Amino acid sequence: MRDLTKGDEATTLITFALPMLLGNVFQQFYNMVDSFVVGRFVGTNALAAVGVSFPVIFLLVALIMGITMGSSVLISQFFGARDRERLASTISTSYLFLFGAGIFMSVIGFFSVPFILNILAVPPEIYSEARSYMSIILGGMLITFGYNGVSAMLRGIGDSKTPLYLLIAASLMNVVLDLVFVIVFHWGVAGAAWATLISQAFSFITAMVIFNRTESHMKVELKKLSWNKEIFGSMIKIGLPTGIQQTLVSLGMMMLTRIVNEFGPATMAAYTAAARIDSFASMPAMNLSQALMTFTGQNMGAGKTERVKKGHRAAIIMNIVISLSITLLVTLAGHWLIGIFTTDSVVIDIGARYLLIVGFFYIIFGNMFINNGVMRGAGDVFIPMISSLLALWIVRIPCALLFTKVFGMGSDGIWWSIPAGWFIGFVFTTWYYRTGKWKTKVLVRRPSLADEIE
Asked: Is the pLDDT assigned to residue 449 strictly greater than 50?
């Protein structure tokens, strides 16, 4: 638990974001280990099968976790306003929502797998493996929701270390189980799926045990859990636009995946491998955005708008420095990075081309996310949703279709459509941030400081 309303803005953001960054490194380590093990020890088709599943998983998680992000914003604002009663009520309502939604989505996800694979036009040679992997992961949505939801709520009260410890434990377990299930037991992609699910379950259960043995804000007492309609309404108000935004993003990812699938298993495998590297490359910006969201929520709750602006400037500067370093790495070492996942030279060449094109635009991506972090933290979540709709569906998808089918650019056309969308999203969010309208959206204010908000 940490108060982000005091101290130097840049130092506060760095020290809060660093555990989240390390945590997300381990989070991506999940996906990377799955891809590495199946790509190296099962084959190119297996790597493509794992890759085609991730946009679908993200889609089913997106809407629910968007609402959970709404609870995280409320938690940070109540914490900043020192409103202990409504803080406890928000956490209780969030738990009940996560459990109910997790059970529902586990059932829906499991039975919708064949339908989803047909929509994605998955090639016959990878259909069976994709169905196996996806069925296991989607059937365990309850675990995934609980695991990610608890981490989001902890970050709302300024605790970025506990999620890190949980992720480290889960990631190490995932590595061991991947090697055992895939290499020793020869379970193929199903082994990688079970390794991920069991690891997440271990981390989630461990968190519940720890919370119940301490006086943590996150303590779960089933008899005391209560549903607060007013709190849930606020969660929906903040979280639904974010959930819709995440859903639009995941649908866009599925659409891009379908376009990629038309180029065959080699391009699919290259996209899977490059996307893993891309996920690592974008993590610093995404974690700065998450840190800035909590930072903004607490400071807006405390009535410190000018401190939010200083935090935004500090995050932009940090993003520029970090993004330039990452760009240098992925553009110069693209072939080596893709070679981690496969020995197929064709796959390596296609994946390296992706990193060369996309890698030069990480600064734009990061600044867009940082702008969105301020808006979400202030409770102005409608604008990030519009930004995603504009960048993805108005720019990226049409460009991908135009570049590949009209201009004949091949898979390069898909890769170029990604930074095109980022650029439009960056321009839009920068313009809106400068209007200052986000300052009027805060839902919770500490009364004695409310007059500081302009």
From this structure: no
Q: What is the pLDDT of residues 162-215, one digit of tens each?
A: 877 888 888 889 889 999 999 999 998 899 899 989 998 998 888 777 777 656
As a whole number of angstroms, the distance between CA 62 and CA 65 comes to 5
Sign of the torsion angle spanned by Cα atoms 209, 291, 241, 77: positive
CA torsion through residues 391, 393, 397, 401, sign: negative
Residues 6 or more apart whose CB falls under 8 angstroms from that of 262 comprise 121
How far apart (Å, rounded) are the C-alpha atoms in residues 111 and 138? Answer: 9
**Nearest C-alpha neighbor of 363 from the set 440, 288, 446:** 288
pLDDT of residue 218: 67
Task: Classify 118 as helix, strand or coil.
Answer: helix
Looking at residue 179, the DSSP 8-state letter turns out to be I
| DSSP class of 439 | G
- Confidence label for 448 from pLDDT (cuts 50, 70 and 90): very low
The pLDDT assigned to 450 comes to 39
Cα–Cα distance, 409 to 400 (Å, whole number): 9
Torsional sign, CA 69, 75, 76, 78: positive
DSSP 353: H
Query: 300 and 453 in contact (C-beta within 8 Å)?
Result: yes
pLDDT at 267: 93
Residue whose token pair is 């760095």: 14
Give the integer Cα–Cα distance in Å for 231 and 449.
Answer: 23
| CB distance 203 to 168 below 8 Å | no
Q: How many CB atoms lie within 10 A of CB 349?
A: 14
Q: Using CB atoms within 10 Å of the CB of residue 308, give its burial: 0 to 12 exposed, 13 to 18 middle, 19+ buried.
A: buried
HSE-CB at 233 with a 13 A cutoff on CA atoms is 4
Instruction: Supply the DSSP symbol for 225.
Output: -
CB 140 within 8 A of CB 200: yes
Q: How many residues does the chain have?
A: 454
Choose between 1 and 366: higher pLDDT.
Answer: 366
Which of 220, 401, 390, 379 lies closest to 301 in space, CA to CA? 379
CA dihedral 169, 170, 172, 175 (to 10 degrees): 170
Looking at the predicted structure, is the pLDDT value of residue 228 above 80? yes
Tokens of 115: 């339908």
Q: List the structure tokens of 285.
A: 């910006």
Is the Cβ–Cβ distance between 380 and 437 less than 8 Å? yes
